Amino acid sequence: MSEFSSFTNKLNNYLIVKKSLPRELVNEVDAVKALTYLRTMQLHTKGDYYLYCASLNLLNTYVKQSDAKKGANYNFKSYLRPLLHSIVNNQPEDVYFDYKKDDKGKITLLDIDGIQFSFHNVAIDPLIEEALSNGKGSKNIEWDGIKKQHNATTLFEAGVRGKRFRSNLTRDNYELDEYVEEVAEKYKRKEKVVAR
After folding, report:
1. Most CB contacts within 10 A, which of 8, 17, 44, 160?
2. Would the pTM of this model clear 0.90, i.e. be above it?
3. What is the C-alpha radius of gyration for the chain, rounded to an integer number of angstroms?
């Protein structure tokens, strides 16, 4: 078993144990960090794909909280399309997606080396539709039954701490974590952030 497989296996086991505990709350600064990761990170490694999905999951949880900042909405779902395109175009090892229907509507399932994320009502485009029909980056995924939003902060923090699994680069080849922390600090001080 690879080191990353061990990482995802331990996370899944931890989440199964934690499912009976109260849902974690997502703080506003973590939501800012998650959005910054989505806007700026490169996708090369399993760790990159994991952190990207954990960031989406964190924002999906945050917008549902009663204390979410006014204006928080589901616009973050627009970042799913570039994720799916990257999976189709790069076909990273052990990273797959599937598209199904359940009692809540259409659902996109993602599997990153054994850990799954799911998102409802994501539009698919011709590239994704073709990939679903020819298996390029997609495979049949049966949901594992572990609700990831319940522990969104734990999953996000694990992705941030799992730096050894990530390329840790912005799209402009800057150090990703350093930039995300800079954005978070400026957000806390209400300063203007300069995009990189």
Report:
1. 8
2. yes
3. 16
